Automatic annotation (TrEMBL):
The keyword ATP-binding applies. This is Replication-associated recombination protein A. GO terms for molecular function: ATP binding; ATP hydrolysis activity; DNA binding; enzyme activator activity; single-stranded DNA helicase activity. Belongs to the AAA ATPase family. RarA/MGS1/WRNIP1 subfamily. SMART domains: AAA. Keywords: ATP-binding, Nucleotide-binding. It comes from Priestia taiwanensis.
Length: 421
């Protein structure tokens, strides 16, 4: 009975799983597998504490299939050989493999034939994106299911179940968790129900029983026991790149509130380098020619942030994020260079016209280099019509102006005038 509360609260059947309705709800894919008692190897991917191994154990419990739990790092090939030997005796076995993304080649090569012939059903659990972190040989033999962070309402359901279980252990005692404390456990754990269980258990064990045989858990106790008052994430993990992506797309979409939300998450991760890089990319990719000051202003804000450091760095960063959000947007330069690069990479090059080739060497004239070149500064307005692109691309247009903002309207009129002369 010394097992942690989080361990004791693990579901034994698929019906007891909290959350993840998109996978285990009525008519959903994992529930259908369980109901049909026809399992396929799978990888459960999601953040910590959302029930990956719990679902794996519940699948085994609901289908009555024997299972063994191993860790891809901690357990060696010999441990896997023992599992396979047991599977051969029982003819069917589920291998729940935690940290499956850390499976080395020797262990992988050993397991593959048994996955192929169905002797072992693998249920791998990982916090890393399987499309980035798991070898294709394993990935191709498994269904991949993504689990999501649990909603506070789901976590509250689990906590209330846990309180009932713990009250039974107290016999005549009572556990009272104030609504504000329960809400704090449910929200501040950031979707990680294991953290919520651990904090609740610590609160119950560290709070004295009063004369009425009650354990009363207040909000201050909850805050002490769950030392997570703000969001944080691993700046080297997959979720970090999702936050960066959401950050750029929110600014591109001119949503100030969402942009500040994702900026705050990146600030909490302490990754000023990624924030700076992404802001500069946004200034030139998404704002571009619509606001020529966006790039220099973003750089200035970043330099101030780097000089003053956190926590004050949040202020210039917030300023520039709001400015970029509300600036007019244009990706015409971004699209133009991408199209030009696409031509180059497809081999659409062509010879550089002779009249604009380098003529600053002896013998260049004999090769026809520079002959016929018209020097624009010799002409009114500093422009004269002549061919610059190779013959095979001379009619190519890469730049398509966006005329939805005043700055680029001016560029568009000049561009069209020059092209039409």
């Amino acid at each position: 009975m010394n097992q942690p509360l989080a361990y004791r609260m693990r579901p034994t059947t698929i019906h007891d799983v909290i959350g993840q309705e998109h996978l285990v709800g009525d008519g959903k894919i994992i529930r259908r597998m369980v109901d049909a008692k026809h399992l396929q190897s799978m990888i459960l991917y999601g953040p910590p504490g959302v029930g990956k191994t719990s679902i794996a154990r519940a699948i085994a419990g609901s289908t009555g299939t024997a299972f063994r739990m191993l860790n891809a790092v901690m357990n060696n090939k010999k441990d896997m050989e023992i599992v396979v030997a047991e599977a051969k005796m029982s003819r069917k076995l589920i291998l729940i493999l935690d940290e499956v993304h850390r499976l080395d080649k020797a262990k992988q090569d050993y397991l593959l034939p048994f996955l192929e012939n169905g002797l072992i059903t693998l249920i791998g659990a990982t916090t890393s994106n399987p499309y980035h972190a798991i070898n294709s040989a394993i990935r191709s033999r498994c269904q991949i299911f993504e689990l999501h962070s649990l909603d506070p309402e789901d976590i509250e359901i689990g906590l209330k179940r846990a309180i009932t279980v713990e009250e039974e252990r107290l016999e005549n005692g009572k556990i009272i968790v104030e609504d504000t404390a329960l809400s704090h456990f449910s929200i501040a754990c950031n979707g990680d129900i294991r953290s919520a269980y651990n904090a609740l258990e610590l609160a119950m064990l560290s709070t004295p029983i009063n004369e009425q045989a009650e354990i009363i858990i207040t909000l201050p106790i909850a805050e002490e026991c769950l030392q997570k008052k703000s969001f944080s994430h691993d700046k080297d993990g997959d979720s970090h790149y999702d936050v960066l992506s959401a950050f750029q797309k929110s600014i591109r979409g001119s949503d100030v509130d969402a942009s500040l939300h994702y900026l705050a998450r990146l600030i909490e991760a302490g990754d000023l380098t990624s924030i700076a890089r992404r802001l500069l990319v946004i200034a030139y990719e998404d704002i571009g020619l619509a606001n020529l000051q966006a790039g220099p202003r973003a750089l200035a804000a970043i330099e101030v942030a780097e000089r003053i450091g956190f926590p004050e760095a949040r202020i210039p960063l917030a300023n520039i994020v709001i400015e970029l959000c509300l600036s007019p947007k244009s990706n015409s330069a971004y699209k133009a260079i991408n199209e030009a690069l696409s031509d180059i990479r497809k081999g659409s090059l062509g010879d550089i016209p002779s009249h604009i080739r380098d003529a600053h060497y002896r013998g260049a004239e004999e090769l026809g280099r520079g002959i016929g070149y018209l020097y624009p500064h010799d002409y009114p307005n500093g422009w004269v019509k002549q061919q610059y692109l190779p013959d095979r691309l001379k009619s190519k247009h890469y730049y398509e102006p966006k005329e939805t903002n005043k700055t680029e309207q001016l560029f568009a009129s000049i561009y069209k005038k020059l092209k039409n002369n």
